[in-house]
Protein backbone atom coordinates (compact mmCIF):
# COMPACT_ATOMS: atom_id res chain seq x y z
CA UNK A 1 0.00 0.00 0.00
CA UNK A 2 1.61 3.29 -1.04
CA UNK A 3 1.86 5.92 1.68
CA UNK A 4 1.29 9.60 0.99
CA UNK A 5 1.64 12.34 3.60
CA UNK A 6 -1.54 14.30 4.26
CA UNK A 7 -0.47 17.60 5.79
CA UNK A 8 -3.01 19.92 7.34
CA UNK A 9 -2.59 23.43 5.93
CA UNK A 10 -4.60 25.10 8.69
CA UNK A 11 -2.40 27.89 9.98
CA UNK A 12 0.07 27.60 7.10
CA UNK A 13 1.24 30.88 5.50
CA UNK A 14 -0.74 30.26 2.30
CA UNK A 15 -3.87 28.75 3.89
CA UNK A 16 -6.19 31.77 3.68
CA UNK A 17 -4.89 32.74 0.23
CA UNK A 18 -5.49 29.18 -1.03
CA UNK A 19 -9.04 29.25 0.33
CA UNK A 20 -9.66 32.63 -1.31
CA UNK A 21 -8.61 31.63 -4.84
CA UNK A 22 -10.20 28.22 -4.31
CA UNK A 23 -13.61 29.81 -3.69
CA UNK A 24 -13.22 31.87 -6.89
CA UNK A 25 -12.39 28.78 -8.96
CA UNK A 26 -15.14 26.73 -7.32
CA UNK A 27 -17.76 29.38 -8.15
CA UNK A 28 -16.76 29.26 -11.82
CA UNK A 29 -17.28 25.50 -12.22
CA UNK A 30 -20.61 24.67 -13.81
CA UNK A 31 -20.19 20.95 -14.45
CA UNK A 32 -22.42 18.56 -16.36
CA UNK A 33 -20.53 15.62 -14.86
CA UNK A 34 -20.31 16.31 -11.12
CA UNK A 35 -22.29 14.36 -8.51
CA UNK A 36 -23.23 16.47 -5.50
CA UNK A 37 -23.84 13.56 -3.10
CA UNK A 38 -25.08 9.98 -2.97
CA UNK A 39 -28.73 10.94 -2.47
CA UNK A 40 -28.96 13.17 -5.55
CA UNK A 41 -27.11 10.55 -7.62
CA UNK A 42 -29.49 7.83 -6.42
CA UNK A 43 -32.48 9.92 -7.54
CA UNK A 44 -30.85 10.58 -10.91
CA UNK A 45 -29.68 7.05 -11.67
CA UNK A 46 -33.06 5.52 -10.87
CA UNK A 47 -34.58 7.56 -13.70
CA UNK A 48 -32.01 6.44 -16.29
CA UNK A 49 -32.63 3.86 -19.00
CA UNK A 50 -29.51 2.74 -20.84
CA UNK A 51 -29.43 2.08 -24.59
CA UNK A 52 -29.37 -1.53 -25.70
CA UNK A 53 -26.02 -3.33 -25.64
CA UNK A 54 -24.56 -0.92 -23.03
CA UNK A 55 -23.10 -1.91 -19.68
CA UNK A 56 -21.97 -0.02 -16.60
CA UNK A 57 -18.25 0.67 -16.07
CA UNK A 58 -16.40 2.61 -13.37
CA UNK A 59 -13.09 4.41 -13.97
CA UNK A 60 -10.77 5.42 -11.14
CA UNK A 61 -7.71 7.68 -11.23
CA UNK A 62 -4.57 6.36 -9.57
CA UNK A 63 -3.52 8.97 -6.98
CA UNK A 64 -5.12 12.00 -8.60
CA UNK A 65 -3.89 14.80 -6.30
CA UNK A 66 -0.23 13.81 -6.32
CA UNK A 67 -0.19 13.10 -10.08
CA UNK A 68 -1.59 16.38 -11.43
CA UNK A 69 1.06 18.06 -13.64
CA UNK A 70 1.30 21.67 -12.53
CA UNK A 71 2.21 22.92 -16.00
CA UNK A 72 -1.35 22.03 -17.11
CA UNK A 73 -3.05 24.27 -14.56
CA UNK A 74 -2.30 27.72 -16.09
CA UNK A 75 -3.59 26.52 -19.49
CA UNK A 76 -6.83 25.22 -17.95
CA UNK A 77 -7.37 28.50 -16.07
CA UNK A 78 -6.75 30.51 -19.25
CA UNK A 79 -9.27 28.35 -21.17
CA UNK A 80 -11.91 29.01 -18.49
CA UNK A 81 -10.96 32.62 -17.75
CA UNK A 82 -14.11 34.06 -19.32
CA UNK A 83 -16.14 32.28 -16.65
CA UNK A 84 -13.63 32.73 -13.81
CA UNK A 85 -13.28 36.50 -14.24
CA UNK A 86 -17.00 36.92 -13.47
CA UNK A 87 -16.20 36.02 -9.85
CA UNK A 88 -13.10 38.19 -9.24
CA UNK A 89 -11.63 41.62 -9.97
CA UNK A 90 -8.08 40.22 -10.13
CA UNK A 91 -6.51 40.27 -13.59
CA UNK A 92 -5.39 37.05 -15.26
CA UNK A 93 -1.63 37.49 -14.79
CA UNK A 94 -1.90 38.18 -11.07
CA UNK A 95 -4.42 35.36 -10.59
CA UNK A 96 -2.07 32.85 -12.26
CA UNK A 97 0.78 34.12 -10.08
CA UNK A 98 -1.26 33.62 -6.91
CA UNK A 99 -2.33 30.08 -7.86
CA UNK A 100 1.25 29.15 -8.76
CA UNK A 101 2.53 30.63 -5.48
CA UNK A 102 0.02 28.60 -3.43
CA UNK A 103 0.90 25.37 -5.25
CA UNK A 104 4.66 25.88 -5.08
CA UNK A 105 4.76 26.73 -1.36
CA UNK A 106 3.64 23.33 -0.05
CA UNK A 107 6.11 21.98 2.47
CA UNK A 108 6.34 20.27 5.84
CA UNK A 109 8.99 19.11 8.30
CA UNK A 110 9.54 15.61 9.61
CA UNK A 111 12.28 14.41 11.94
CA UNK A 112 14.25 17.60 11.46
CA UNK A 113 14.12 17.59 7.65
CA UNK A 114 12.04 19.83 5.41
CA UNK A 115 10.14 18.36 2.46
CA UNK A 116 8.64 20.28 -0.44
CA UNK A 117 5.95 19.17 -2.90
CA UNK A 118 7.84 19.06 -6.21
CA UNK A 119 5.11 17.42 -8.29
CA UNK A 120 1.35 17.30 -8.11
CA UNK A 121 -0.74 19.09 -5.52
CA UNK A 122 -0.50 18.68 -1.76
CA UNK A 123 -3.03 16.45 -0.01
CA UNK A 124 -4.44 18.68 2.72
CA UNK A 125 -4.34 21.99 0.87
CA UNK A 126 -7.77 23.66 0.44
CA UNK A 127 -6.85 24.48 -3.15
CA UNK A 128 -6.01 20.90 -4.22
CA UNK A 129 -9.61 19.53 -4.54
CA UNK A 130 -10.67 22.47 -6.71
CA UNK A 131 -7.61 22.15 -8.95
CA UNK A 132 -8.27 18.40 -9.24
CA UNK A 133 -11.87 19.12 -10.21
CA UNK A 134 -10.77 21.56 -12.91
CA UNK A 135 -8.28 19.04 -14.33
CA UNK A 136 -10.94 16.30 -14.39
CA UNK A 137 -13.40 18.65 -16.11
CA UNK A 138 -10.82 19.45 -18.77
CA UNK A 139 -9.99 15.76 -19.16
CA UNK A 140 -13.63 14.73 -19.63
CA UNK A 141 -14.28 17.50 -22.18
CA UNK A 142 -11.18 16.41 -24.08
CA UNK A 143 -12.05 12.70 -24.03
CA UNK A 144 -15.71 13.14 -25.03
CA UNK A 145 -14.74 15.32 -28.00
CA UNK A 146 -12.23 12.71 -29.26
CA UNK A 147 -14.62 9.76 -29.22
CA UNK A 148 -16.53 8.97 -32.42
CA UNK A 149 -19.58 7.69 -30.53
CA UNK A 150 -21.72 9.23 -27.78
CA UNK A 151 -21.51 8.22 -24.12
CA UNK A 152 -25.09 8.15 -22.78
CA UNK A 153 -24.01 8.21 -19.11
CA UNK A 154 -20.92 9.77 -17.58
CA UNK A 155 -20.86 11.09 -14.02
CA UNK A 156 -17.98 12.04 -11.72
CA UNK A 157 -17.42 12.20 -7.96
CA UNK A 158 -13.91 13.62 -7.39
CA UNK A 159 -11.80 10.97 -9.18
CA UNK A 160 -14.42 8.21 -9.47
CA UNK A 161 -16.32 7.95 -12.78
CA UNK A 162 -19.30 5.86 -13.80
CA UNK A 163 -20.02 5.39 -17.50
CA UNK A 164 -22.35 3.44 -19.76
CA UNK A 165 -20.41 1.93 -22.67
CA UNK A 166 -20.73 -0.85 -25.25
CA UNK A 167 -18.70 -3.84 -23.96
CA UNK A 168 -16.41 -3.81 -26.99
CA UNK A 169 -15.56 -0.11 -26.51
CA UNK A 170 -14.36 -0.22 -22.90
CA UNK A 171 -10.67 -0.75 -23.71
CA UNK A 172 -10.75 1.88 -26.45
CA UNK A 173 -12.26 4.47 -24.10
CA UNK A 174 -9.76 3.50 -21.42
CA UNK A 175 -6.87 4.14 -23.79
CA UNK A 176 -8.25 7.56 -24.72
CA UNK A 177 -8.52 8.48 -21.04
CA UNK A 178 -4.95 7.35 -20.35
CA UNK A 179 -3.60 9.24 -23.38
CA UNK A 180 -4.69 12.61 -21.97
CA UNK A 181 -1.57 12.80 -19.79
CA UNK A 182 1.05 10.20 -18.96
CA UNK A 183 0.83 11.00 -15.25
CA UNK A 184 -2.95 10.72 -14.94
CA UNK A 185 -3.74 7.05 -15.43
CA UNK A 186 -7.01 5.17 -14.92
CA UNK A 187 -8.07 1.71 -13.91
CA UNK A 188 -11.52 0.35 -14.69
CA UNK A 189 -14.03 -2.12 -13.30
CA UNK A 190 -16.85 -3.61 -15.35
CA UNK A 191 -20.17 -4.75 -13.96
CA UNK A 192 -20.56 -8.39 -12.96
CA UNK A 193 -23.95 -9.99 -13.44
CA UNK A 194 -25.39 -6.54 -14.03
CA UNK A 195 -24.05 -5.20 -10.71
CA UNK A 196 -21.45 -2.47 -10.20
CA UNK A 197 -20.40 -0.92 -6.84
CA UNK A 198 -20.20 2.88 -6.96
CA UNK A 199 -19.93 5.23 -3.98
CA UNK A 200 -21.96 3.63 -1.15
CA UNK A 201 -24.43 1.81 -3.37
CA UNK A 202 -24.57 -0.97 -5.93
CA UNK A 203 -25.93 -0.08 -9.35
CA UNK A 204 -28.10 -2.92 -10.64
CA UNK A 205 -28.82 -2.95 -14.40
CA UNK A 206 -32.11 -4.74 -14.98
CA UNK A 207 -33.31 -6.55 -18.08
CA UNK A 208 -35.20 -3.52 -19.41
CA UNK A 209 -31.93 -1.48 -19.10
CA UNK A 210 -33.23 0.59 -16.18
CA UNK A 211 -31.00 1.10 -13.14
CA UNK A 212 -31.92 0.26 -9.57
CA UNK A 213 -29.75 0.60 -6.50
CA UNK A 214 -28.88 -1.19 -3.28
CA UNK A 215 -27.06 0.05 -0.21
CA UNK A 216 -23.44 -1.14 -0.27
CA UNK A 217 -20.54 -1.42 2.12
CA UNK A 218 -17.09 -2.65 1.15
CA UNK A 219 -16.10 -6.22 2.09
CA UNK A 220 -13.48 -4.86 4.49
CA UNK A 221 -16.06 -2.73 6.32
CA UNK A 222 -16.62 -3.95 9.91
CA UNK A 223 -20.14 -2.49 10.01
CA UNK A 224 -19.37 -0.30 12.98
CA UNK A 225 -21.45 2.77 13.79
CA UNK A 226 -21.36 4.85 16.95
CA UNK A 227 -21.73 2.14 19.55
CA UNK A 228 -24.72 2.36 21.89
CA UNK A 229 -22.44 1.73 24.89
CA UNK A 230 -19.99 4.50 23.96
CA UNK A 231 -19.66 7.62 26.10
CA UNK A 232 -21.56 9.96 23.78
CA UNK A 233 -24.86 11.84 24.19
CA UNK A 234 -27.95 9.82 23.29
CA UNK A 235 -29.09 12.36 20.69
CA UNK A 236 -25.78 11.96 18.84
CA UNK A 237 -26.25 8.19 18.67
CA UNK A 238 -29.82 8.62 17.45
CA UNK A 239 -28.72 11.08 14.76
CA UNK A 240 -26.09 8.60 13.58
CA UNK A 241 -28.66 5.80 13.42
CA UNK A 242 -31.25 7.95 11.64
CA UNK A 243 -28.70 8.95 9.03
CA UNK A 244 -27.69 5.32 8.52
CA UNK A 245 -31.33 4.20 8.21
CA UNK A 246 -32.03 6.93 5.69
CA UNK A 247 -29.13 5.85 3.50
CA UNK A 248 -30.12 2.22 3.55
CA UNK A 249 -33.80 2.83 2.86
CA UNK A 250 -33.28 5.40 0.12
CA UNK A 251 -30.53 3.50 -1.65
CA UNK A 252 -32.36 0.16 -1.68
CA UNK A 253 -34.82 0.56 -4.56
CA UNK A 254 -34.93 -2.94 -6.04
CA UNK A 255 -35.62 -4.91 -2.85
CA UNK A 256 -38.50 -5.06 -0.39
CA UNK A 257 -38.80 -2.91 2.72
CA UNK A 258 -38.38 -6.04 4.78
CA UNK A 259 -34.95 -6.66 3.26
CA UNK A 260 -33.91 -3.09 4.06
CA UNK A 261 -35.13 -3.43 7.66
CA UNK A 262 -33.24 -6.71 8.08
CA UNK A 263 -30.03 -5.03 6.93
CA UNK A 264 -30.57 -2.18 9.39
CA UNK A 265 -31.37 -4.52 12.27
CA UNK A 266 -28.20 -6.60 11.74
CA UNK A 267 -25.96 -3.50 11.83
CA UNK A 268 -27.71 -2.01 14.89
CA UNK A 269 -27.46 -5.30 16.74
CA UNK A 270 -23.74 -5.45 15.94
CA UNK A 271 -23.37 -2.04 17.58
CA UNK A 272 -25.19 -3.15 20.78
CA UNK A 273 -28.43 -1.22 20.30
CA UNK A 274 -31.02 -3.00 22.50
CA UNK A 275 -33.84 -4.93 20.82
CA UNK A 276 -36.71 -2.70 22.08
CA UNK A 277 -34.97 0.38 20.71
CA UNK A 278 -34.23 -1.31 17.37
CA UNK A 279 -37.86 -2.35 16.96
CA UNK A 280 -39.10 1.12 17.86
CA UNK A 281 -36.73 2.76 15.36
CA UNK A 282 -37.73 0.38 12.57
CA UNK A 283 -41.44 0.79 13.24
CA UNK A 284 -41.50 4.56 13.44
CA UNK A 285 -39.26 5.14 10.42
CA UNK A 286 -36.74 7.90 10.19
CA UNK A 287 -37.14 10.87 12.51
CA UNK A 288 -36.52 13.96 10.42
CA UNK A 289 -35.56 17.11 12.25
CA UNK A 290 -36.68 20.38 10.70
CA UNK A 291 -34.28 23.16 11.52
CA UNK A 292 -36.02 26.51 11.58
CA UNK A 293 -33.65 29.21 10.35
CA UNK A 294 -32.84 31.82 12.97
CA UNK A 295 -34.50 35.21 12.59
CA UNK A 296 -32.53 38.34 11.90
CA UNK A 297 -32.87 39.38 15.53
CA UNK A 298 -31.51 36.08 16.91
CA UNK A 299 -28.00 35.03 15.96
CA UNK A 300 -27.08 31.46 16.82
CA UNK A 301 -23.83 31.05 18.73
CA UNK A 302 -22.09 27.65 18.76
CA UNK A 303 -20.00 26.60 21.75
CA UNK A 304 -18.30 23.35 22.72
CA UNK A 305 -18.38 21.68 26.12
CA UNK A 306 -16.43 18.73 27.47
CA UNK A 307 -18.78 15.75 27.62
CA UNK A 308 -19.36 14.26 31.06
CA UNK A 309 -22.20 11.76 31.05
CA UNK A 310 -25.38 13.00 32.74
CA UNK A 311 -23.77 16.27 33.85
CA UNK A 312 -23.37 17.71 30.34
CA UNK A 313 -26.97 16.86 29.40
CA UNK A 314 -28.33 18.66 32.46
CA UNK A 315 -26.13 21.69 31.90
CA UNK A 316 -27.15 21.82 28.26
CA UNK A 317 -30.83 21.71 29.21
CA UNK A 318 -30.42 24.51 31.75
CA UNK A 319 -28.43 26.69 29.35
CA UNK A 320 -30.95 26.12 26.57
CA UNK A 321 -33.70 27.58 28.73
CA UNK A 322 -31.59 30.58 29.75
CA UNK A 323 -29.77 31.13 26.44
CA UNK A 324 -31.92 29.85 23.56
CA UNK A 325 -29.56 31.25 20.91
CA UNK A 326 -26.58 29.21 22.19
CA UNK A 327 -26.10 25.72 20.71
CA UNK A 328 -23.79 23.39 22.63
CA UNK A 329 -21.71 20.68 20.98
CA UNK A 330 -20.13 17.91 23.05
CA UNK A 331 -16.34 17.70 22.98
CA UNK A 332 -14.54 14.48 23.92
CA UNK A 333 -11.25 14.22 25.78
CA UNK A 334 -10.35 10.81 24.35
CA UNK A 335 -9.60 11.11 20.61
CA UNK A 336 -7.76 9.02 18.03
CA UNK A 337 -5.06 11.71 17.95
CA UNK A 338 -3.81 10.34 21.26
CA UNK A 339 -2.96 7.04 19.54
CA UNK A 340 -0.60 8.73 17.07
CA UNK A 341 1.57 10.96 19.19
CA UNK A 342 4.85 10.33 17.33
CA UNK A 343 3.76 10.96 13.74
CA UNK A 344 4.64 14.67 13.77
CA UNK A 345 7.72 16.61 14.70
CA UNK A 346 7.62 18.32 18.07
CA UNK A 347 7.56 22.07 17.54
CA UNK A 348 10.39 23.73 19.53
CA UNK A 349 9.01 25.74 22.48
CA UNK A 350 10.33 29.04 21.13
CA UNK A 351 8.50 28.48 17.82
CA UNK A 352 5.07 27.87 19.35
CA UNK A 353 2.29 30.43 19.26
CA UNK A 354 -1.02 30.87 21.13
CA UNK A 355 0.68 29.98 24.41
CA UNK A 356 0.53 30.95 28.09
CA UNK A 357 4.06 31.37 29.44
CA UNK A 358 5.80 32.01 32.77
CA UNK A 359 9.03 33.95 33.37
CA UNK A 360 10.75 33.50 36.78
CA UNK A 361 12.53 36.28 38.63
CA UNK A 362 16.26 35.85 39.17
CA UNK A 363 16.33 37.53 42.55
CA UNK A 364 13.20 36.22 44.29
CA UNK A 365 10.45 33.57 44.06
CA UNK A 366 8.17 35.81 42.01
CA UNK A 367 7.16 35.01 38.45
CA UNK A 368 5.29 36.71 35.61
CA UNK A 369 2.53 34.97 33.58
CA UNK A 370 1.63 36.22 30.14
CA UNK A 371 0.13 35.17 26.83
CA UNK A 372 1.16 35.61 23.21
CA UNK A 373 -0.55 34.79 19.93
CA UNK A 374 2.71 35.14 17.99
CA UNK A 375 5.74 32.89 18.27
CA UNK A 376 7.09 32.78 21.81
CA UNK A 377 10.58 33.86 20.73
CA UNK A 378 9.14 37.09 19.31
CA UNK A 379 7.36 37.84 22.57
CA UNK A 380 10.50 37.09 24.58
CA UNK A 381 12.46 39.32 22.21
CA UNK A 382 9.99 42.11 23.00
CA UNK A 383 10.50 41.61 26.74
CA UNK A 384 14.29 41.62 26.26
CA UNK A 385 14.12 44.83 24.28
CA UNK A 386 12.14 46.70 26.97
CA UNK A 387 14.39 45.32 29.73
CA UNK A 388 17.45 46.57 27.83
CA UNK A 389 15.82 50.00 27.50
CA UNK A 390 15.21 50.04 31.25
CA UNK A 391 18.81 49.04 32.02
CA UNK A 392 20.15 51.80 29.76
CA UNK A 393 17.98 54.38 31.53
CA UNK A 394 18.98 53.14 34.99
CA UNK A 395 22.70 52.99 34.23
CA UNK A 396 22.65 56.47 32.74
CA UNK A 397 22.37 57.88 36.31
CA UNK A 398 20.40 60.77 34.94
CA UNK A 399 17.81 62.55 37.07
CA UNK A 400 16.41 64.52 34.17
CA UNK A 401 12.62 64.72 33.77
CA UNK A 402 12.92 62.92 30.42
CA UNK A 403 14.63 59.91 31.98
CA UNK A 404 12.08 59.75 34.80
CA UNK A 405 9.26 60.02 32.30
CA UNK A 406 10.69 57.18 30.18
CA UNK A 407 11.11 54.94 33.24
CA UNK A 408 7.56 55.67 34.36
CA UNK A 409 6.29 54.91 30.85
CA UNK A 410 8.03 51.53 30.90
CA UNK A 411 6.68 50.90 34.39
CA UNK A 412 3.11 51.13 33.08
CA UNK A 413 3.69 48.67 30.22
CA UNK A 414 3.75 45.34 32.05
CA UNK A 415 3.81 43.99 35.58
CA UNK A 416 7.20 42.46 34.73
CA UNK A 417 8.76 45.90 34.21
CA UNK A 418 6.94 47.27 37.23
CA UNK A 419 8.48 44.58 39.45
CA UNK A 420 11.91 45.20 37.92
CA UNK A 421 11.73 48.92 38.67
CA UNK A 422 10.17 48.73 42.14
CA UNK A 423 12.29 45.86 43.46
CA UNK A 424 15.36 46.38 41.22
CA UNK A 425 15.15 42.71 40.24
CA UNK A 426 15.81 41.10 36.88
CA UNK A 427 13.90 38.26 35.19
CA UNK A 428 15.53 35.19 33.68
CA UNK A 429 14.18 35.12 30.13
CA UNK A 430 16.21 32.01 29.31
CA UNK A 431 14.08 29.95 31.72
CA UNK A 432 10.73 30.91 30.20
CA UNK A 433 8.27 28.03 30.62
CA UNK A 434 5.18 27.28 28.52
CA UNK A 435 2.24 26.62 30.84
CA UNK A 436 -0.52 26.03 28.29
CA UNK A 437 -1.42 26.27 24.62
CA UNK A 438 -4.69 26.51 22.69
CA UNK A 439 -5.45 26.85 19.00
CA UNK A 440 -8.40 29.19 19.63
CA UNK A 441 -7.24 32.69 20.49
CA UNK A 442 -10.54 33.47 22.19
CA UNK A 443 -9.75 30.87 24.86
CA UNK A 444 -6.34 32.32 25.72
CA UNK A 445 -7.45 35.23 27.98
CA UNK A 446 -9.44 32.87 30.23
CA UNK A 447 -6.54 30.41 30.30
CA UNK A 448 -4.15 33.20 31.23
CA UNK A 449 -6.35 34.28 34.15
CA UNK A 450 -6.61 30.69 35.38
CA UNK A 451 -2.84 30.21 35.28
CA UNK A 452 -2.26 33.52 37.03
CA UNK A 453 -4.51 32.37 39.88
CA UNK A 454 -2.87 28.95 39.88
CA UNK A 455 0.71 30.32 39.98
CA UNK A 456 2.09 31.13 43.44
CA UNK A 457 3.99 34.39 43.94
CA UNK A 458 2.86 35.86 40.65
CA UNK A 459 3.34 39.59 40.13
CA UNK A 460 0.54 40.13 37.61
CA UNK A 461 -1.76 43.09 38.08
CA UNK A 462 -5.03 42.68 39.90
CA UNK A 463 -6.92 43.89 36.82
CA UNK A 464 -5.72 40.79 34.94
CA UNK A 465 -7.95 38.48 36.97
CA UNK A 466 -11.05 40.58 37.55
CA UNK A 467 -12.90 39.08 34.56
CA UNK A 468 -12.96 35.53 35.99
CA UNK A 469 -16.22 34.34 37.49
CA UNK A 470 -16.34 33.45 41.17
CA UNK A 471 -17.54 29.95 40.27
CA UNK A 472 -13.89 29.01 39.66
CA UNK A 473 -12.99 29.71 43.29
CA UNK A 474 -13.69 26.15 44.45
CA UNK A 475 -11.54 24.67 41.70
CA UNK A 476 -8.53 26.84 42.53
CA UNK A 477 -8.95 26.20 46.25
CA UNK A 478 -8.68 22.47 45.51
CA UNK A 479 -5.61 23.00 43.33
CA UNK A 480 -3.86 25.15 45.91
CA UNK A 481 -4.60 22.61 48.64
CA UNK A 482 -3.17 19.80 46.54
CA UNK A 483 -0.05 21.80 45.71
CA UNK A 484 0.63 22.51 49.37
CA UNK A 485 0.55 18.77 50.04
CA UNK A 486 3.18 18.02 47.37
CA UNK A 487 5.97 19.96 49.03
CA UNK A 488 6.37 23.30 50.74
CA UNK A 489 9.68 24.01 49.04
CA UNK A 490 8.96 22.93 45.47
CA UNK A 491 8.95 25.45 42.65
CA UNK A 492 6.53 25.22 39.73
CA UNK A 493 9.09 23.47 37.53
CA UNK A 494 9.58 20.86 40.26
CA UNK A 495 5.92 19.94 40.57
CA UNK A 496 5.30 16.41 39.25
CA UNK A 497 3.96 16.07 35.71
CA UNK A 498 0.79 14.41 36.96
CA UNK A 499 -0.14 17.58 38.83
CA UNK A 500 0.71 19.84 35.88
CA UNK A 501 -1.45 17.75 33.57
CA UNK A 502 -4.32 17.96 36.01
CA UNK A 503 -4.08 21.71 36.28
CA UNK A 504 -4.04 22.01 32.51
CA UNK A 505 -7.21 20.02 32.08
CA UNK A 506 -9.34 21.29 34.97
CA UNK A 507 -10.30 24.58 33.35
CA UNK A 508 -12.75 24.20 30.44
CA UNK A 509 -11.72 26.15 27.34
Automatic annotation (TrEMBL):
PROSITE patterns: RT_POL
InterPro entries: DNA/RNA_pol_sf (IPR043502), RT_dom (IPR000477)
Occurrences of domain Reverse transcriptase (ranges): 1-220
Domain of life: Eukaryota
Protein name, UniProt field: Reverse transcriptase domain-containing protein
The organism of origin for this protein: Aedes albopictus
Amino acid sequence: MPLRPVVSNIGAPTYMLSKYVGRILQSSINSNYNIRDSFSFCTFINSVRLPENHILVSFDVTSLFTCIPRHMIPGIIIERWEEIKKHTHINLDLFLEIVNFCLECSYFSYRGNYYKQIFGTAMGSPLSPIIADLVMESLLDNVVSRLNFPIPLIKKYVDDLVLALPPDKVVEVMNVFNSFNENIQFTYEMEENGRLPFLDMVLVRQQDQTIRTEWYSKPMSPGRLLDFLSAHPLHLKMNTVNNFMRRVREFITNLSNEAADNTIDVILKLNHYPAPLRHRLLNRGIARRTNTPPSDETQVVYKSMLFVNDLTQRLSKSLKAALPNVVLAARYEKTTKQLYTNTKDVIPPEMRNNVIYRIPCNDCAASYVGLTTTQLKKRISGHRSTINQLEELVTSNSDSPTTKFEIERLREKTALLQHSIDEQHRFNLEKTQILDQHRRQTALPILEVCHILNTPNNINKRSDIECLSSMYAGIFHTLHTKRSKVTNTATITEIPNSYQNESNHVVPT
